Amino acid sequence: MLWNTILLALREIRRNILRSFLTVLGIVIGVAAVITMVTIGGGATVQIQQQIASMGSNLLMMSPGKRLGPGQTTGNIPFKESDADAIAREISLVAAVAPVSSQSIMAIFGNQNWTTQVSGTNNQYLKVTNRSIGAGREFSDSELRSGAAVCIIGETVRKKLFGGQGALGEKIRLQKLSCDVIGLLEGKGQSTMGMDQDDIVVIPLSTFHRRISGNQDVGLIQISVQQGTSTEKAQSDIGRLMRERRHLSASDDDNFNVMDMKEITKMLTGTTQLLTALLGAVAAVSLLVGGIGIMNIMLVSVTERTREIGVRLAIGALENDVLTQFLVEAVVLSSLGGLVGIALATAASFVAARLMQVPYIFNPGINLLSFLFSAAIGVIFGFFPARRAARLDPIDALRHE
Amino acid sequence: MKTGGTQRSDSKSDQHLIEFRGVTKVYGEGHASMQALRGIDLCIDEGEFVAIMGPSGSGKSTCMNILGCLDTPTAGTYLFRDVDVSQLTRNQRALLRRYYQGFVFQGYNLLNRTSAFENVELPLIYRGAPAHERREQALKALDTVGLKGWESHTPGELSGGQQQRVAIARAIVTEPAVLLADEPTGNLDTARSREIMELLNSLNINQGITIIMITHELDMAAYAKHIIHFLDGLVSSDEQNGRAK
Fold this sequence. Notes:
The complex is a heterodimer. Chain A is of the alpha+beta class. Helices cover about 55% and strands about 20% of the residues of chain A. In chain A, strand 2 and strand 3 form a beta hairpin. The longest helix of chain A has about 45 residues. In chain B, the strands form 2 sheets. A 6-stranded mixed beta sheet of chain B has the order 6-7-8-3-9-10, sandwiched between helices. Chain B has a 4-stranded antiparallel beta sheet with strand order 2-1-4-5, with helices on one face. In chain B, helix 6 links the parallel strand 7 and strand 8. The two termini of chain B are about 35 Å apart. At the A-B interface, helix 1, helix 10, helix 11 and helix 13 of A face helix 2 and helix 3 of B.
């Protein structure tokens, strides 16, 4: 008997192909929209997390000046290169220390020019910032000591100045300094804060001091702490050492500031969580709208079919026969719609992820959830109006217009 | 019969197929109420061909709907083969329709966009008959009503007379004890009406199906051996028709 009822349900679906199609379409769109949105949102979140990870969570940034808030400082007495050496020498938890002085300078090659960030530092800089040389070599010790006119350039600078040409061994001009390109940095991509991390030229710190800034100041010291050790401990050790080196008495505030990447990470994680919550809310709304669409079609079609229900009752169908038939119809249509929606969403989010350059990550939870939600709506709103109709006296159902 | 737990009226030896005792039907409540049937008594025996006649609003359709268990009486007793139908549950009444009754409507009430074959097959599906049996019986019923070769046509592709034949085929495919027809020829021209009447007549004679039919037309009622007239919710005359065709 159940098989016969399923047969009747399938016949109804087939014979009302347009109505069936519209029902399925409502579910498909609801499910597909939600899954696509959440999948893309999830991809973006993961991308942000990957970028944070690529910056290195064990990074400390020390800048001169009083700390006013996260990233805000004032009243700066700059560091010297010897400060960096002292940290490397005396703090055991430290893995690498890079003193960095930067300035925005126009780089020129032939008739091409490009304004970029020029940083004077040492080879430790690569280690601290989690970067590697893609082609060419690092600075040699003698180049670092003597302040040789050599540079390592980032991918963006290479593209802007050299285009398709080879850059290694060429000379570029930075203000009055003409320097050899000895290495290319491996591309890192856009950072989360919207800065292009590949828009950079690295030269030896001594070269920067002599040929560009004309003083011995170091604007920033970047420190990477050994993996698996406490950044807080390193932070306080460095703080103590620097207070000593800067001759601060116990009553003085720090006139430098050691910032933990964890602070930045925390800030960015908060942002992505907000983003995820926002996407979730939008997704919930579109699922609701999709659900209302399904509900409408189901309600209208069942109301339309009251007379049909009357005919079935008149020729000997039990209330349960009619209900089972409508339930099977609703289940078949809803699950079909759900499956097509999932397929469509998979294709759409895959393509969208490609276009938006975020990783595609399959999210089984949202697939299951939206499938169940739309199926439940389809079944509930297919079933209850049908039950109302099936409980009428056959003659009332037959007279229904 | 399958309707267990029902009451049988005892002692009466001369069993009728259908017996109404003081059946009334009231629509609505209070001042707005309308008495469609005001106490009907009638007896119909197995194998009869009954015509129910009467002006509009005389209660004959209401009576028919109660006969077909599509509607329930307000008061009175409806005995079907001595089973008190008013004591049956909804599902038991559905089973009574399924196994013992066939209903033909004035407006055909076929399922749209559904082939003649599938319409006729439908009552057998509710009976749980296997596919080959359904096929055999549905084709036979369509053949009986003269629609051999029209099995795959949908109601939209059939004329009114053909649709009514499909409806009749659907009603008789289960070989019911009684065929209830509410103005079966009401929407048809005289020639088609005559064909339908011949068909009902032959079903009555050849298959022994009891036929109860509402009609306005004396021509059609002339086929019946038993004619009941309704007037204002009461039976005004109930007589045998000696000159039945």
